[in-house]
Amino acid sequence: xxxxxxxxxxxxxxxxxxxxxxxxxxxxxxxxxxxxxxxxxxxxxxxxxxxxxxxxxxxxxxxxxxxxxxxxxxxxxxxxxxxxxxxxxxxxxxxxxxxxxxxxxxxxxxxxxxxxxxxxxxxxxxxxxxxxxxxxxxxxxxxxxxxxxxxxxxxxxxxxxxxxxxxxxxxxxxxxxxxxxxxxxxxxxxxxxxxxxxxxxxxxxxxxxxxxxxxxxxxxxx
Length: 222
Description:
By secondary structure, the protein is α+β, with helices and mostly antiparallel strands. Helices cover 18% and strands 41% of the residues.
């Protein structure tokens, strides 16, 4: 009887392990794997995470991507040749749905506007053509050369899904100084949620071990 209970418990544990959600992972767009994207209209990295492909595409400007290993992706042409600015869009498309936990931006500063006044650069991301996430530079990120410099880095928390496409824009809705709203995209924290995600090796091992032990107990009982 005890063996029956143990077998049931092991089988239940195996099912729970198999059904455990995939862990969040950071996609580093500064990684050299992305370097072939530079000056291309679009570029795809296969298995950017296990079972997940990511395609990055430039829109507006010259229609070509800018990439560097210090600050990530922008769009060539336009007002600033290495960032996302007026009339440009950077599109990120996943091969399967993900939960978007956060994204990391570079070169988003608080800049001087006239004598003694400042404004904060801003932009927005559109998720699957619907939900919009607005962001602006942190108040302490003063552009280098104006008083105390910042590094222009901003991590924007989102925590929503499923998402298959993210489109990044500069925001000029209330700023006449269009050339000053620009930034680059350097990374994303996501949790894959599609059926193509490969389970973690440790989970596979534990699942197989639990099922194997259950089968061994059944054979001994027989």
